[in-house]
């Protein structure tokens, strides 16, 4: 069995995520206690004090599924069951993966601790006992999800839940607003994470985390600094602020995930900031270009969309951003990168590829001969689209015709002709009249009945 048995790690997951903390320290819930009884029963049934971890996880999953079938379940308990079920299923998946690859991983509080090499330049700190890890003489592990580092012997005593578990919860939402800063009095002179005593003028001075707005002891806050989602979202400011260890791990883990809906989080900035306007224009064009690429075998062969790299989600929607993208927007790198990709895409569609070129438009509203032969695309400069059928015209020509689309006009006429042909003796103009007279007689009938 490649997974080292980490006793009771499931029962220690804290499903009741407190509002402000990120990786809450264990607090036993009713669900935890119920599961502990399930495990106890399993040990008795199998006459095995050290029951197989996978069997325990399976038993817990089955138990929760049975409980969820009950209709009289309290909403809060139900949520706790669902959270726990998600964590258990993740753990089950991991155990099965590890069994296949033969890798030795210790799973504790959702962390996936893998053994590390003894060679290496730096001796890191153990985040459990806060002492140096002497790599040459002490074996140590690192969480493959969040990077949490600890002595091998300390892994079992970790109290923080892995941020990987926190972000996999269905109700996880990245905080993009500025937090309310709490005072020492609010926190009862305790660290917000480990609850050890903190106070000014002592060796345990509190440290403020700009992400949670809470105060921490020096073991839980190492003065790491990161750009904050709130300052990025509201003022496109990428300067670094001090954050606690938990926030650092969480923010690093989700840095590349498109979790920020800018049109909701900061609608004014996205509409008015010149850099944002440029990026939004690129993104809108990428969406049009994708329509060309999906129907082009040359583009598929070239795997042209892979140029987007970590910005793949740009061809799935228009408003989501990752923390990293906002940071790159601040230092100008994002616009430069997108400009490069945009040029490559345009060159393929407009110049290099016959298939894509064949899907371009002629401006039907052109009055001068030389311009009407030009092939235009929805993403070309000075081109406007019909909002209904997406046909492209020169902006000048479209405005001159009061945004009247000849293509839609033709469609409308064809449709009318079809309706007329299908009801040759029943002119459509008279039909509604007939219907309304029927209805009014119906209403009259109702009145006379009452
Ligand atoms: Zn972890
Ligand atoms: Zn340690
Ligand atoms: Zn602490
Ligand atoms: Zn093509
Ligand atoms: Zn034109
Ligand atoms: Zn149209």
UniProtKB/TrEMBL annotation:
<dbReference type="InterPro" id="IPR047983">
    <property type="entry name" value="DEF8_C1"/>
</dbReference>
<dbReference type="InterPro" id="IPR002219">
    <property type="entry name" value="PKC_DAG/PE"/>
</dbReference>
<dbReference type="InterPro" id="IPR046349">
    <property type="entry name" value="C1-like_sf"/>
</dbReference>
<feature type="region of interest" description="Disordered">
    <location>
        <begin position="1"/>
        <end position="26"/>
    </location>
</feature>
<protein>
    <recommendedName>
        <fullName>Phorbol-ester/DAG-type domain-containing protein</fullName>
    </recommendedName>
</protein>
<feature type="compositionally biased region" description="Low complexity">
    <location>
        <begin position="1"/>
        <end position="21"/>
    </location>
</feature>
<dbReference type="Pfam" id="PF00130">
    <property type="entry name" value="C1_1"/>
</dbReference>
<dbReference type="Pfam" id="PF13901">
    <property type="entry name" value="RH_dom"/>
</dbReference>
<keyword id="KW-0677">Repeat</keyword>
<dbReference type="InterPro" id="IPR025258">
    <property type="entry name" value="RH_dom"/>
</dbReference>
<keyword id="KW-0479">Metal-binding</keyword>
<keyword id="KW-0863">Zinc-finger</keyword>
<dbReference type="GO" id="GO:0008270">
    <property type="term" value="F:zinc ion binding"/>
</dbReference>
<keyword id="KW-0862">Zinc</keyword>
<feature type="domain" description="Phorbol-ester/DAG-type">
    <location>
        <begin position="110"/>
        <end position="162"/>
    </location>
</feature>
<comment type="similarity">
    <text>Belongs to the DEF8 family.</text>
</comment>
<feature type="region of interest" description="Disordered">
    <location>
        <begin position="419"/>
        <end position="450"/>
    </location>
</feature>
<dbReference type="InterPro" id="IPR051366">
    <property type="entry name" value="DEF8"/>
</dbReference>
């Amino acid at each position: 069995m490649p997974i080292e048995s980490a006793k009771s790690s499931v029962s220690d997951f804290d499903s009741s995520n407190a509002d402000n903390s990120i990786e809450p320290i264990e607090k036993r819930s009713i669900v935890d206690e119920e599961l502990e009884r399930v495990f106890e029963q399993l040990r008795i049934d199998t006459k095995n004090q050290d029951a197989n971890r996978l069997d325990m996880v399976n038993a817990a999953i089955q138990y929760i599924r049975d409980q969820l079938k009950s209709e009289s379940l309290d909403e809060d308990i139900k949520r706790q069951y669902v959270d726990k079920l998600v964590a258990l299923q993740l753990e089950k998946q991991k155990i099965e993966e590890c069994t296949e690859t033969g890798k030795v991983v210790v799973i504790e509080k959702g962390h996936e601790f893998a053994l590390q090499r003894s060679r290496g330049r730096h001796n890191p700190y153990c985040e459990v006992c806060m002492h140096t890890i002497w790599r040459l003489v002490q074996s140590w592990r690192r969480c493959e999800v969040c990077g949490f580092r600890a002595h091998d012997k300390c892994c079992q005593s970790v109290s923080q839940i892995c941020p990987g578990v926190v972000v996999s919860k269905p109700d996880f939402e990245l905080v993009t607003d500025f937090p309310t800063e709490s005072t020492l009095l609010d926190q009862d002179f305790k660290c917000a994470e480990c609850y050890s005593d903190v106070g000014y003028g002592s060796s345990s001075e509190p440290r403020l985390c700009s992400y949670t707005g809470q105060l921490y002891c020096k073991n839980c806050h190492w003065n790491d600094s990161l750009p904050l989602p709130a300052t990025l979202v509201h003022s496109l400011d990428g300067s670094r602020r001090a954050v606690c260890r938990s926030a650092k791990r969480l923010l690093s883990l989700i840095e590349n995930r498109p979790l920020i809906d800018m049109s909701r989080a900061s609608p004014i900035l996205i509409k008015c900031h010149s850099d944002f306007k440029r990026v939004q224009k690129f993104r809108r064009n990428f969406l049009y270009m994708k329509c060309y690429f999906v129907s082009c075998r040359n583009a598929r062969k070239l795997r042209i969309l892979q140029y987007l790299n970590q910005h793949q989600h740009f061809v799935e929607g228009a408003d989501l951003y990752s923390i990293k993208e906002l940071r790159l927007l601040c230092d100008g790198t994002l616009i430069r990168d997108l400009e490069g990709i945009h040029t490559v895409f345009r060159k393929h569609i407009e110049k290099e590829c016959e298939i894509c070129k064949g899907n371009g438009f002629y401006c039907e509203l052109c009055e001068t001969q030389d311009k009407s032969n030009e092939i235009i695309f929805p993403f070309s400069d000075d081109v406007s689209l019909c909002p209904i059928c997406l046909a492209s015209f020169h902006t000048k020509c479209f405005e001159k015709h009061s945004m009247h689309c000849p293509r839609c006009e033709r469609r409308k006429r064809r449709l009318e002709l079809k309706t007329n042909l299908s009801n040759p003796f029943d002119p459509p103009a008279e039909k509604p009249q007939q219907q309304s007279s029927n209805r009014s007689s119906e209403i009259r009938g109702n009145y006379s009945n009452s």
